[in-house]
Design a protein that fits this description.
Helices cover about 80% and strands about 0% of the residues. The chain is mainly α.
């Protein structure tokens, strides 16, 4: 599985395109394009909005191509009931525990269900070949081992 991280030039392109649109608003070009119907201002506004849309689409594709274990890491590691349930789900796939799926979904809202389903789908397709999954699973397994050591001490 290919894992992409958004490259800085793609983010810089998106930021620059957004800054150009902001400049259109600040310098009055956007207002002139719509109120005064100035053709040069209209052309500039269309060009800048098209560039923003193109840059947005490129970044959106990069995000979509990333492993859900990377995309949703924040939700998985969150100190919430849903975060804990997502961690149990990851650990179950990683092989360190058996977790009843039905009990996990009691803690999920709509977004959490989507996260869980994307993670399950990715695991079904890629298994241990997903380096982000393996990295997160190892991190969670080590944190479980550390917790057990602290309790035993």
């Amino acid at each position: 599985m290919e894992h992409r991280i958004i490259t800085s030039n793609k983010l810089q392109r998106l930021i620059a395109a957004a800054a150009n649109v902001q400049t259109l608003m600040d310098d009055g070009t956007l207002a002139a394009a719509f109120e005064a119907r100035d053709p040069d201002c209209t052309n500039q506004a269309v060009t800048d909005f098209d560039a923003l849309n193109t840059a947005r689409a490129i970044v959106a594709e990069e995000i979509k191509a990333a492993s859900p274990f990377l995309r949703y890491r924040r939700e998985i590691m969150a100190a919430t009931p849903a975060g804990m349930a997502l961690r149990y789900l990851v650990m179950s796939m990683y092989g360190n525990s058996n977790v009843p799926i039905r009990g996990l979904f009691e803690h999920f809202g709509e977004h959490d269900i989507r996260v869980a389903l994307e993670c399950l789908t990715s695991f079904a397709a890629n298994g241990d070949r997903d380096s982000q999954f393996m990295s997160l699973g190892l991190e969670l397994a080590q944190s479980d081992d550390d917790s057990a050591i602290e309790v035993a001490a």
